[in-house]
From TrEMBL:
Pfam families: DUF6596 (PF20239), Sigma70_r2 (PF04542), Sigma70_r4_2 (PF08281)
Species the sequence originates in: Lentzea jiangxiensis
PANTHER family: BLL6612 PROTEIN, BLL6612 PROTEIN-RELATED
InterPro entries: DUF6596, RNA_pol_sigma70_r2, RNA_pol_sigma70_r4_t2, RNA_pol_sigma_r2, RNA_pol_sigma_r3/r4-like, TPR-like_helical_dom_sf, WH-like_DNA-bd_sf
Residues of the RNA polymerase sigma factor 70 region 4 type domain: 106-157
Keyword vocabulary terms for this entry: Sigma factor, Transcription, Transcription regulation
SUPFAM superfamilies linked: Sigma2 domain of RNA polymerase sigma factors, Sigma3 and sigma4 domains of RNA polymerase sigma factors, TPR-like
Highest taxon of source: Bacteria
Protein name: RNA polymerase sigma-70 factor, ECF subfamily
Span of domain RNA polymerase sigma-70 region: 15-75
Length: 402
């Protein structure tokens, strides 16, 4: 029964919160009532059984909890009486092309009135359903900082009376960037879940679904197209990424198990952007890199010179240490592990707390025959990794290769 509630939380959390936000126009009310509804499910479902439509049951229960709470508060404070009024749905924007409560909630959480970090944290919590610890790991910051961002963001939305709707056509392009950042983080959390099992396909599916909606709304936006292509090409490899309880790295994956329909769709989107003749953004370049990887029938067929050229372009767009770390993997294939290790070691001040830094360094040290140093780097990577399947992979590679 606990599993049923957990599954319902993953599947229905955003639906319940967005439905209550649409009705009551208050994110605090929506989130707290949703949490109470799930708590009620934990108490009642073991005795009553799982309802035929868990989402409808949870939404109805949450609405009752919200109304009860607001009535209690209204007796103490007249300013809460207006919250009992049902909010009429707002225009969806862009000629009403899309009608989706979660998309409205997404744009509300990503409103320009909020700081960028607050937009991302709030959306991951309310739309993605991630916990505060999961969001903190995604940001590599303290849980208390994430909690404060979410609280302040909700207060700002209420004070500024941010509308619950998809922006109008003229406002939409300026709002898309922060939405894409959020969707990419949600997808990444699903693709390599923190503190849980190997993956959370519910999160990757939701990120792809919402990105498809954005692509339908903005079919000519290069970065929306690029992110959708990136997600599809990454998701296509998921069937081969886990064996038992262990993560399978790219060089060991059975490429015959990849989802070739998703690969074909992703490749078509990449070609579409190339044909547009417009300078690519970050997501388009990442999608192109993944297109090169998924075009190779075997690991040794990978066109590493093209991968490196694309990373060189990406570094100019996004000069982050993580991009530099990923670029070093291509450098190792073309110029050897010693050259790549020198690049990686220069990144240590910025990436000392990032598990992938130590895992990459461990592999390069192994290839150079520096076994003791490689083992120590693998150990550090294991210490910093929150995903159980990735830990199993690192331990195996450490013990077999270091």
């Amino acid at each position: 029964m606990t599993e049923a509630v957990t599954r319902a939380h993953r599947d229905e959390w955003a639906r319940v919160v967005s439905a209550l936000t649409r009705r009551f126009g208050d994110l605090d009310v929506a989130e707290e009532a949703a949490a109470e509804a799930f708590a009620t499910a934990v108490e009642r479902w073991p005795a009553d059984g799982v309802p035929p439509n868990p989402g409808a049951w949870l939404t109805t229960t949450a609405q009752r909890k919200a109304v009860d709470r607001l009535r209690r508060e209204a007796k103490r404070d007249d300013k809460h009486r207006e919250a009992l009024v049902v909010h009429e749905p707002q225009p969806t924007g862009a000629d009403g092309a899309i009608d989706d409560d979660r998309l409205r909630l997404l744009f509300t959480c990503c409103h320009p009135a909020l700081a960028v970090q607050a937009r991302v944290a709030l959306t991951l919590r309310l739309v993605g359903g991630l916990t505060v610890p999961e969001i903190a790991r995604a940001f590599l910051v303290a849980e208390s900082a994430v909690g404060q961002r979410i609280t302040r963001a909700k207060a700002k939305i209420k004070a500024a009376r941010v509308p619950y709707r998809v922006p109008s056509a003229e406002d939409l392009p300026a709002r898309v960037s922060s939405v894409l950042t959020v969707l990419f983080l949600v997808f990444n959390e699903g693709y390599l879940a923190t503190g849980t099992g190997p993956v959370r396909p519910d999160l990757t599916a939701e990120a792809i679904r919402l990105t498809r909606l954005l692509h339908a709304l903005l079919p000519h936006d290069g970065e929306v197209t690029g992110l959708l292509a990136l997600m599809l090409l990454t998701e296509a490899r998921r069937p081969a990424r886990v064996a038992g309880d262990e993560l399978v790295p790219l060089d060991e994956q059975d490429r015959g198990a990849w989802d070739h329909a998703l690969i074909a769709e992703g490749h078509a989107l990449v070609r579409e952007r190339l044909a547009a003749g417009v300078a690519p953004g970050r997501y388009q370049v990442l999608a192109a890199i993944n297109a090169v990887h998924t075009s190779a029938r075997h690991m040794h067929d990978t066109d590493w010179s093209q991968v490196l050229a694309l990373y060189d372009l990406l570094v100019r767009i996004d000069p982050s240490p993580v991009v530099a770390l990923n670029r070093a993997v291509a450098v190792a294939e073309l110029d050897g592990p010693e050259v790549a290790l020198a690049v990686v070691d220069r990144l240590e001040p910025e990436l000392a707390g990032y598990h992938a830094f130590h895992a990459t360094r461990a592999d390069l040290l192994r290839r150079l025959g520096r076994r003791a140093e490689s083992r120590a780097a693998y150990d550090r990577a294991v210490e910093l990794t929150g995903n159980t399947a990735e830990i199993a992979c690192l331990v195996r590679r450490r013990d077999q290769r270091a």
